[in-house]
Design brief:
With 239 residues, this protein is mainly alpha-helical. The chain has 2 domains: 46 residues; 177 residues, no CATH class. 79% of the residues lie in helices and 0% in strands. Helix 2 runs antiparallel to helix 3, helix 2 packs antiparallel against helix 7 and helix 5 runs antiparallel to helix 7.
Length: 239
């Protein structure tokens, strides 16, 4: 519609310039009026286009944030399981590290030893965030505090967890290497007991207990995830 108006009044300008009916003053006034109409029509067209584009962007933001909320709910649940798994593992390592080298292995030892070599890692759902980020759409989130929290979670809190888990994994690899060497010729219960109650085994087991920093970083991710979800609820409470 705006294009038709521009074309119409543009033709009027051309006709006025070519017309010989009126004097120069009259032509200039009429031309100025036609140009003003053209500018107004173009401005209105740009404004409507901008409004339409903004509505489309905010619809995408809403879909992203509501989807992100479901991702975060799953992440918080998984974090709870991971934290619990580390707590249980800590108890196992502490039990094994406290064993008396002079005692004999029992059924409890066998159960605890079997639990000692298990991987525990948090794997967040990031595909939705990464897709929105790679599309250059994160800046369409108009709530700056919410955007900052999202960026902090995915670009700081999650990598911090990976670093702490990586440090724990390094200790686990050293523990595995020690046990592989100690049990290479004899993997009996008695030999396993001797391996874990020897000084090097006790030292490795004590290092397997997770550092407080790991739990702090899990807690930070959980708190941020819940804060983001609560804010999304406020923004789209009717959804």
């Amino acid at each position: 519609m705006a294009e038709l108006e521009v074309a119409k009044h543009g033709k009027n300008v051309v006709d006025l310039v070519a017309s010989k009916e009126h004097g120069l003053g009259h032509k200039l006034r009429e031309i100025a009026l036609e140009i003003a109409i053209i500018v107004f029509a173009v401005s209105i067209s740009i404004w409507f286009h901008g409004m339409s584009e903004h509505r489309h962007e905010q619809a995408q933001v809403k879909a992203f944030l509501l989807g992100l909320k479901s991702d975060l709910a799953r992440d918080v649940e998984d974090l709870g399981f991971v934290v619990q798994a580390y707590r249980e593992a800590d108890a196992t390592y502490q039990y094994l590290a406290a064993l008396d080298p002079k005692a004999a292995p029992d059924e409890q030892f066998e159960k605890q030893f079997a639990r000692a070599d298990v991987n525990r890692y948090f794997v967040p759902v990031t595909s939705r965030f990464e897709g929105f980020k790679s599309g250059g759409k994160l800046t369409n989130i108009e709530d700056e505090a919410l955007l900052n929290d999202i960026l902090t979670l995915y670009q700081y809190a999650h990598p911090a967890i990976r670093r702490s888990e990586g440090a724990w994994g390094g200790n686990q690899e050293k523990m595995r290497a020690y046990l592989d060497n100690a049990l290479e010729q004899d993997d009996s219960r008695d030999q396993a007991y001797r391996a874990v109650t020897a000084a090097p085994g006790k030292r490795r087991l004590r290092k397997m207990v997770a550092y407080p920093q790991l739990y702090e970083r899990y807690a930070t991710a959980i708190a941020l995830s819940k804060k983001i979800s609560d804010r999304i609820d406020v923004l789209y409470k009717a959804s």
